[in-house]
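Appendix B: complex inputs.
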Amino acid sequence: MTDPFLRPSVLPPLTGVLAAGARTAAMTKNCHNDYKMKFTTDEEFPDLSLHNNHMAKVLTKEIYEKLRSKSTPSGFTVDDVIQTGVDNPGHPFIMTVGCVAGDEESYEVFKELLDPVISDRHGGYKPTDKHKTDLNFENLKGGDDLDPNYVLSSRVRTGRSIKGFTLPPHNSRGERRAIQNLSIEALSSLEGEFKGKYYPLDGMTDAEQEQLIADHFLFDKPVSPLLTCAGMARDWPDARGIWHNDNKTFLVWVNEEDHLRVISMQKGGNMKEVFKRFCVGLQKIEEIFKKHNHGFMWNEHLGYILTCPSNLGTGLRGGVHVKLPKLSTHAKFEEILTRLRLQKRGTGGVDTASVGGVFDISNADRLGSSEVEQVQLVVDGVKLMVEMEKKLEKGESIDGMIPAQK
Amino acid sequence: MPSPSLIESKGFVLLTAFTFFPEGPNAYLKYHLFFISHFYLCSSEYPDLRQHNNCMASNLTPAIYAKLCDKTTPNGYTLDQAIQTGVDNPGHPFIKTVGMVAGDEESYEVFADLLDPIIKERHNGYDPCVMKHPTDLDSSKIHSGQFDDRYVLSSRVRTGRSIRGLSLPPACTRAERREVERVVVDALAGLKGDLTGRYYSLTQMTEKEQQQLIDDHFLFDKPVSPLLTCAGMARDWPDARGIWHNNEKTFLIWINEEDHTRVISMEKGGNMKRVFDRFCRGLKEVERLIQERGWEFMWNERLGYILTCPSNLGTGLRAGVHVKLPLLSKDPRFSKILDNLRLQKRGTGGVDTAAVGGVFDISNLDRLGQSEVQLVQTVVDGVNYLIECEKRLERGQDIKVPPPIKQFK
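Resulting structure:
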């Protein structure tokens, strides 16, 4: 039955905010979790004997015992946090995180579990460490001279969560719609090179859809069980959409794995320009959200708060598609990447293979270093690897160029 | 206490005036604002069902949603959880799924305002508000239950049973699921004679055992259908899941798949009577064994046996055969004949598969409102009729479409 008068898009963001507030107030008690407490820890503890993910390595019965009676103000529990890791035992070679946050408070309420997971995932980051945020693009040195014969495209992405709402594993339809409405309002006020348009997933025409696919902008309903088991695909495609500027160099995903994913990209190797656009665009968007008393989730210890603990800190992945057919087959390729604090992916993104010797090379770190520092590593590291590739083309050795550990 | 009345017409909602306010205008305002804000809060949560074709979407009005959205069962199961599968799976224009599940026995009461009309729609008019469901597992009442083996390749009867006091697969915790496994496996160990058998836990079976179960077509897999995964039924897989079967491989029980238990009696050939005999005997014996230990099945007069999916209420019974009907299946009257006999066809891979080599899976259409004996007799009579039609067509004779049989007896 349709209800045109009360169609969600007609309602102002305010009702979504009221919804979020009222639900938070009403649900300070999670009845189902209280009901579960009548079973013992032993009876409820998950079987992780075949599991290989960060959550499974960290979660002991003692920690589970301590946390199982707790819930965040919005009702998120430790079982909710770990469900994705229980359902996805992982792979012997690839260590996934195995847990998610349902809201900002998850990182506090479930510290005993999440702090060690964060430490394992982020190179020993301690609960007392502080994270530096630096979105001042002028601090980046160089980055405008990567050889376009090798570097095919440059891209920087991050995520942002809107304070006052719960995160994609937990949020309700009302919250998701309110996030969409706030995002549309913020993005449609952008001007100049940032002027653009919003395409809601459930409202785009066939022509628009094909164009977005051709531009490689369109995101699909998640099929990865890592995401679906965490509840992030619920109610698809309600309140999901894509915004991009007319130039197609600045793109925002709304309500996919995070509230917002912000992407700046262009063909060629001018990472400096990509990063400048990234920083300027982000700061403009943040101002507008702040005006509505819904700034971004951030704190001194964990930086920007996102759904997956792997994206804490900067949430930034700055990378290039670069042709390295010779270097990538060199015996020391992996070691070079590790020393440069970079990682490789195939050109389809995470968990894909490289095609034609073209690799996606990006920063490995997210937490404990700033945006500028991470992009600097990419710029310097890729520049070095392109020089190595050129040497190998000439049949020369690169042994003298192997860098020290950064 | 003043009570607002909500009139719903063509999708528009009107709040009528309050009739009586003893506390004066402030109370009216407060109550009115509370009511409006409650309603708007629910509206901002109301799912977008415009592209949807399932029973939940057809019956969930904004008013019903507003009424039920803040309720929970004693275990904490909510409406949003119950309808999530229907929101996430809009359905197909030709195939109308149910679109909603129960998280526990109480769901059928707490969310009755939505479930009752869904049940009525899905079960062809059975009205849970006024009708009673008959249970009858006396298999001696079945007659003519031996089919012609030249046509019927195999016979099978299945149902499900839920253990009262434990939540259902969409909502159960790991502890509850393990408890279901413990209770049922313990009871099954008490079966004797031709029912003596063994349990194979999914987490512990050897590769050899696994291969044997696959060869026997007994092994069930982690659900991949989004209808089930979106309802949370695959959580913690394969923890506390398993398969029990008797040594003769004619009586099989699935534990913790889509229901607490699925009970299956089957054999090659056309002796449906013997299959149903064993089915009833086995079920009653299992029930006796769990009752000895202080447990019982979920059942009530209104809805019969309580299972996860509303489509399986009542008997939860699907009695069917794999039968060769190459000529009849090509006759344009085939569908009508099946309809009138209150039978449904599936492919030999089960639901949502195609028929192979003119062999069809033919089973009862109904689940609720008729007893097990009545439904199995319907299948027996119907399949015998279909075989008669096939034989007549073989001889070049014409066939007749039978008159529609009465649905609720």
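Chain B is about 35% helix and 15% strand.
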